[in-house]
Design goal:
Chain A: It comes from Novosphingobium cyanobacteriorum. Chain A: InterPro entries: P-loop_NTPase. The complex is a heterodimer. Chain A is α/β, with parallel strands linked by helices. Helices cover 33% and strands 23% of the residues of chain A. Chain A has one domain: Rossmann fold (3-Layer(aba) Sandwich), CATH 3.40.50.300. The longest helix of chain A has 14 residues. By secondary structure, chain B is mainly alpha-helical. Chain B has a two-stranded antiparallel ribbon. Classes of the chains: A alpha/beta, B mainly alpha.
């Protein structure tokens, strides 16, 4: 359950300061939501607020229960540190046993042999698998996914999907993906961010037609929001 | 096995197949019963491609009389009967898959018949019915849509019922899956704290960060680590050389090499604490994707790790230099350790303020080298305030760094007592810096976006 109390926020998007929310009160009950927006570039900013990883300029956001980091977000699992270092960090943060978490992730991913090498040296698909595999380790009340759910026909995908279905029972999901099938598979409602406010739509298919899921410009390789252009050094 | 034995084995296998087929389809002639039996597999398996049905049709037409429409009809009927039996055995004759196979067969019969009646030979090598791709492609497409729709409905039903949607995995994956589920149950059972606990997650977050920052430090090149020693050593050499050229051997009862070592090493620690802290506010923004972590935490943890590294650098330099007769040993070890730690904390507090400033004004980061050199001049690295004329001492005594480094030197050297270093002023500055950093961070936190 996520509640917004008088939330106002703004952000720099492609060099312009935009008002994301203005004195918004909003209640998001438990459920499975596909995050949609006519401007996909805003979705990442909105996810940051929903996930509680960036406070708004004004107002309060109350999150009831544990919430995941934005699973699948590529920047999360990067750096010169090894996969085992990142597993240890996540284990420390969420109070799980690092060795058990390491065993689990190693059993699930396609390239367990890379776990003790720097993450930046891994092929992108291994990083993505690692990111999603690690997301299964702590049991969250609210899952946030900021990438397409794994879809390649591999052992990892088959296993991950089954285990994720297990994890999702009775939990809340907020999924931001540019693949409509992902949204239809995992969600039953639309959480639409438009005109500076949130709307919950119950007819997901109609909602996807109205707000077609597409990639944001940063996902297509263009510059991210203005903030990223200011700080190009990303050594983690 | 001789060729004759091989032939006999094949004959026996054929006889066995014919016998089984007759038992399965007793009302059909043997040839048609065999075709029907072969068709069963096409309705039973998960194969979606229409190719194997076409192969069976053309092979059957080649083996049996096919001149009249009636002859061909008998073959088609046998295949249809086999497929029907196959889908029944598969368990769900009303499934989308069963419907797909029936439609594929009907479509193939239609296109083959059109060709046969037009005078084409369906049993010729490389035969492919005209209109095959269009007709079968449309069927495959509509099947894929129906399948997706059914899956979505099944998922919705599972969601509504509060159950996990059951995805099928290949038999070879079932064992692994069972084991992975078991591992997750063990992980859940051994979890140390729940999400709503307050104290433990806070402490764990710091532990997680410090361990990760140490991993970052470790992952840096060996030259970078070696620089922790080389940097101060070079500064010591430059400072000592400067004083020696001026003919100084002692500065206010402090021997020049040790004086330079204390100033140089403390400055490097201070510089690392300050600038690693402020840089991590932005360079470690990826860590902000974890809700428990804040820019201040990432900054301070980065600065702390570099500060801690001087726990090793100081003793190695002091003991090494002492053994080589360069440096003297400290007079008050605990006092030195205390004031070095306070100096590091001053650096962390300044770094946190720089981090806040650069959040509001990103260009501030480009001023790093200028700020660094300016601060070095007022850090007490090169001289202590007592070396300056009284009227000029205020030029450096405003800086808390000067007080901090002079207090380190006062603890180190028995013969030096600093008249100017003021612990109260230093602690007041640290307090003010901490408060401004905390307030500033609260005000600008929303401007720091997770990477």
């Amino acid at each position: 359950m996520i509640d917004f109390f008088g939330v106002s926020d703004e952000a720099d998007v492609f060099g312009q300061t935009v008002q994301l929310l203005d004195q918004q009160d909003f209640h998001l009950p438990p459920g499975r939501y596909a995050l949609l927006s006519p401007v996909p570039e805003y979705k990442r900013l909105v996810i940051d607020l929903l996930a509680g990883i960036r406070p708004p300029k004004h107002g309060q956001i109350a999150i009831t229960g544990s919430i995941s980091w934005p699973l699948g977000r590529p920047s999360v699992m990067r750096g010169q540190v090894s996969g085992l270092d990142l597993i240890t960090m996540v284990a420390d943060l969420y109070g799980v046993d690092a060795d058990q978490a390491g065993d689990f992730v190693s059993l699930l991913v396609s390239r367990p042999d890379l776990m003790d090498t720097p993450v930046d040296s891994w092929p992108p698909y291994v990083r993505s698998e690692f990111n999603f595999a690690l997301g299964l380790v702590p049991d969250f009340d609210i899952y946030i996914i900021d990438a397409p759910v794994p879809f390649e026909q591999t052992r990892f995908t088959r296993m991950w999907k089954v285990l994720f279905e297990d994890r999702l029972v009775g939990k809340t999901l907020i999924l931001s993906s540019y693949r409509p099938k992902n949204l239809l598979d995992y969600c039953d409602k639309g959480l639409v961010y438009t005109d500076g406010r949130f709307i919950i739509e119950t007819d997901l298919e109609e909602c996807i037609e109205r707000y077609p899921a597409r990639q944001a410009r940063e996902e297509l390789g263009f510059a991210n929001n203005a903030d990223s252009s200011k700080y190009s050094e990303l050594d983690f | 096995m001789s060729p004759n034995d091989d032939r006999i084995a094949r004959w026996r296998a054929r006889r066995e197949a014919e016998k089984t087929s007759r038992e399965a389809h007793p009302d059909l002639p043997t040839d048609l019963a065999v075709i029907a039996s072969r068709a069963e597999a096409l309705g039973r398996g998960g194969e979606e491609d229409a190719g194997p049905i076409l192969v069976l049709i053309t092979e059957s037409l080649r083996l049996l009389p096919r001149e009249s429409v009636g002859d061909r009809r008998k073959i088609y009927d046998a295949i249809a009967r086999g497929i029907e039996k196959g889908v029944e055995e598969a368990g769900d004759p009303q499934s989308d898959y069963a419907e797909l196979r029936r439609r594929q067969l009907r479509t193939l019969i239609r296109v083959v018949e059109v060709d046969a009646r037009a005078g084409m030979d369906p049993v010729a090598d490389g035969y492919r019915p005209s209109g095959y791709d269009e007709a079968l492609g449309a069927l495959a497409e509509s099947y894929a849509k129906r399948k997706a729709r059914s899956e979505t409905l099944a998922r919705r039903s599972a969601m509504d019922g509060g159950e996990a949607y059951e995805l099928t995995v290949p038999v070879e994956d079932e064992g692994d899956l069972l084991y992975l589920r078991d591992r997750l149950a063990v992980i859940d059972g051994a979890r140390r704290f729940a999400a709503h606990d307050a104290l433990l997650p806070g402490l764990s977050a710091w532990r997680a960060l410090l361990r990760l920052q140490f991993a970052f430090l470790r992952s840096e090149s060996r030259i970078a680590l070696l620089w922790s020693f080389i940097g101060p050593a070079m500064l010591i050499a430059i400072l000592s050389a400067g004083y020696f050229f001026l003919g100084a051997r002692n500065i206010l009862n402090m021997d020049v090499p040790t004086f330079a070592m204390i100033g140089g090493t403390t400055w490097y620690m201070l510089r690392n604490a300050m600038f690693r802290t402020s840089a991590a506010f932005h360079s470690k923004r990826a860590l902000l994707n974890f809700r428990q972590l804040t820019p201040v935490m990432t900054g301070l943890s980065a600065g702390l790790i570099y500060m801690f590294s001087y726990i090793f650098v100081f003793p190695v330099l002091i003991i090494g230099g002492y053994l080589l007769h360069f440096f003297t040993l400290p007079h008050d070890v605990i006092g030195v350790a205390f004031w070095v730690a306070i100096t590091g904390i001053t650096g962390l507090a300044i770094g946190a303020n720089f981090g806040v400033i650069s959040t509001i004004w990103p260009f501030f980061r480009n001023l790093g080298p200028v700020i660094q050199r300016s601060m070095m001049a007022v850090s007490g690295t090169f001289l202590v305030s007592e070396q300056l004329p009284v009227e000029h001492r205020d030029l450096i005594l405003w800086s808390p760094l000067t007080h901090a480094v002079q207090l380190v030197r006062q603890s180190y050297f028995e013969g030096y007592v600093s008249d100017d270093a003021n612990p109260e002023y230093l602690f007041t500055c640290i307090g003010v810096l901490c408060v401004t950093a905390a307030i500033g961070q609260r005000l600008v936190r929303h401007r720091t976006f997770p990477a």
